[in-house]
Amino acid sequence: MSPEMQFLSSPTGSLIVLTLSLLIFVLTRGWATRHRHEDRRLVFAAALGAGLILAGINVVALQVGWWTGAWSGVSLIVVVALCALAGTGGFALWLGLYRWLERRAHHPLRVYTFIVLLFIPVVLIADPIQIRRGWFEFSGGYTLWTDVLLGQIVMWSPVLLYVWLRCRFPDKLGTVAS
Fold first, then answer.
1. What SS3 string covers the chain?
2. pTM (2 decimals)?
3. In-domain check, residue 178
4. Using CA atoms, how far apart are residues 65 and 103, in angstroms rounded to an integer?
5. Does any domain span residue 135?
């Protein structure tokens, strides 16, 4: 088992990951709610939604046996904390890229599409490496291409949620800050 997986599976590692994930979540929430930048609240909501989607995918994949290997030995609480809590912070940063594109590109969704599609070869290269390292294995009909598809869902979820929230709550767009 790789050192990372040993750490994540250990009681000390779990406690550290849970604490840091909660800290990242609280700091992201604090960033979103200070100074009345209403658009930041939408970013936070979209990032949290994307984190919950990622956590849901991980829990389902582990529970139905699509993913086995060392990752399946990590506590579900740690998996959910990494995906939902720390993931919220990561997705808020990812949305920073999209918000930057909105301000600078004529067609931000087209540029974003190009960027997200670049992750297909990343998954095709990285997954076999992680499988060789013992992080996870695919089973139960789950394939590399299933992972590519779910990766695209994960990469699109924060932006689609953000765009939807902006359309749903247009009054929250008064101040846009980075």
1. CCHHHHHHHCHHHHHHHHHHHHHHHHHHHHHHHHHHCHHHHHHHHHHHHHHHHHHHHHHHHHHCCCEECHHHHCCHHHHHHHHHHHHHHHHHHHHHHHHHHHHHCCCHHHHHHHHHHCHHHHHHHHHHHHHHCCCCEECCCCCHHHHHHHHHHHHHHHHHHHHHHHHHCHHHHCCCCC
2. 0.90
3. no
4. 43
5. yes
- Contact criterion met (CB below 8 Å) for 130 and 136: yes
Which of 44, 118, 136, 121 is CA-nearest to residue 84? Answer: 44
- The residues facing 138 across adjacent strands are 67
Q: Is residue 11 part of a domain?
A: yes
Binned at pLDDT 50, 70 and 90, residue 35 comes out as confident
Report the distance separating Cα 70 and Cα 133, nearest Å: 9
User: Domain count of the chain?
Assistant: 1
Helix axes 87-104, 144-168, angle to 10 degrees: 70
- Per the structure, the complete domain to which residue 106 belongs is given by 3-173
Residue 67 belongs to some domain of the structure: yes
The per-residue pLDDT for range 88-126, each reduced to its tens digit, is 999 999 999 999 999 999 999 999 999 999 999 999 999
Place of tokens 């939408």: 42
